[in-house]
Write a structure and sequence with these properties.
It contains eight helices and twelve strands. The protein is 41% helix and 21% strand. The strands form three sheets. It has a five-stranded parallel β-sheet, with helices on both faces. The protein has a four-stranded antiparallel β-sheet with strand order 6-7-8-9, with helices on one face. Strands 10-12-11 form a three-stranded antiparallel β-sheet. The two termini are 29 Å apart. By secondary structure, the chain is α/β, with parallel strands linked by helices.
């Protein structure tokens, strides 16, 4: 499950991110409303943890924009203020849950799990590109009738590429989403793992799905 955490207090964002990662969530972090809106519009998340008080565009504004764009990702609102009218405004704007600050990380994790569980009941857990399928619950991959064995990192890479199917994925973007690196370590890490993945999902099949865009990155799609 991939979660977007939107929190301008970097220390709090770091605590939340580490706590969710310890529970096997993939976590992206934004520190302002504009970046959050851009991220939620380009990456499919299973839940969003959204602080109301943000620099620039506030959390309520972000939420309203997402709902106007028909983005139904479950949203857990956070706020240091616990007034009833603020909770009502957030829920009326389309929030799915509300948690006042300060909060216990265990409660936040439980609420995020509840949101992802409810949303998961209404959508398939299987990703599909052409005859390649990936079950996000069991982590099993299959191409046609052939089962594909993946390491944990190969699974994360394939899941990200399949969720981004048809869109160009740059190396830096892959490092951020798959390795949680916010910097380029100066290695060919991404290229090595893409090569390994390509050997597993493409080498023995006539139709190639994983394509290189020279100098830019990779794209997973049915046609070259």
């Amino acid at each position: 499950m991939r979660v977007l955490v939107v929190e301008d207090e970097k220390k709090t964002a770091s605590f939340v991110r580490k706590a969710l990662q310890a529970e096997s969530f993939a976590v992206d972090v934004c520190h302002n409303g504009d970046d959050a809106l851009a991220a939620a519009s380009t990456t499919p998340f299973d839940a969003i943890v959204l602080d109301i008080m943000l620099p620039g565009r506030d959390g309520i504004s972000v939420l309203k924009q997402l709902r106007e764009r028909k983005n139904s990702t479950p949203v857990l609102l956070l706020s240091a203020r616990g007034e009833v009218n603020e909770r009502v405004e957030g829920l009326n704007a389309g929030a799915d849950d509300y948690l006042p600050k300060p909060f216990e990380l265990s409660e936040l994790i439980a609420r995020v799990r509840a949101l992802t569980r409810r949303s998961g009941e209404n959508k398939s857990t299987t990703l599909r590109v052409a005859d390649l399928t990936l079950d996000t619950l069991t982590h099993k991959a299959q191409r046609g009738n052939t089962a594909i064995e993946l390491t944990a990192r190969e699974y994360r890479l394939l899941e990200f590429l399949m969720r981004s199917a048809g869109r160009l994925c740059g190396r830096m973007m892959i490092l951020e989403k798959v390795w949680d690196y916010s910097f380029d370590p100066g290695t060919n890490l991404v290229d090595v793992y893409v090569r390994r993945l390509r050997e597993k999902i493409d080498a023995d099949f006539a139709t190639k799905l994983l394509h290189t865009v020279r100098g830019e990155g990779y794209i997973l799609k049915e046609a070259a």
